[in-house]
Fold this sequence. Notes:
Elements: H1 3-30, E1 37-43, E2 52-57, H2 63-75, E3 90-94, E4 101-110, E5 116-122, E6 148-154, E7 159-164, E8 169-173, E9 178-182, E10 191-196
Antiparallel strand pairs: 1-2, 1-10, 2-3, 3-4, 4-5, 5-6, 6-7, 7-10, 8-9
Amino acid sequence: MSANxxxxxxxxVAACAITAIAVAALHDAYATPTVAATYTATTxxxxxxGTQLRIQVIRWQDADARxxxxxxxxxxxxxxxxLGKLPTVGYLWPxxxxxxxxxxxxxxxxxxxGGERVTLVTDRLLGSYDFRGWSVPSAAAQxxxxxxxxxxxxxxxxxxxxxxxxxxxxxxxEQAGAVxxxxxxxxxHVLTNVKREAPMR
Length: 201
């Protein structure tokens, strides 16, 4: 084989290799992420009422990742990394909204009845994309938070209720790296018809 022919062959091999790498990169960029869990719920006892929510958790965080989020929430404006810059682990989509909320904290704790308590933190206050915003007539509400905490109380059958930080106080346990809602003095749960969807096969 002549030198020119050899160079031609190797140039074609290199071009094919580059194309394969580019295709693989595009596939990774646009591939649908694996969903660890999907939940649906309906708002109630608040404004707006009757809005359906769809929550998709891409992955549950380990203790270190949860602790980083809690430290960020506790530091507020003094946090070295803003909440919005932390890794996204899922999404919350209100029905009819063209935009959703990124989940920055996702944790599930098993309950004795075979169900679970799911705690989520959104990157923005729920309702911040709506002209009128979201509100709850509750003395325990914390309207000044720039984020929202969502808790779902799911039974062993996969159904339950839930609450949000618009209607209950937020508790940050930096030592344990945990977020929760303090429902002391809170009113009725503002999320009803909570369901965990069966995983796709």
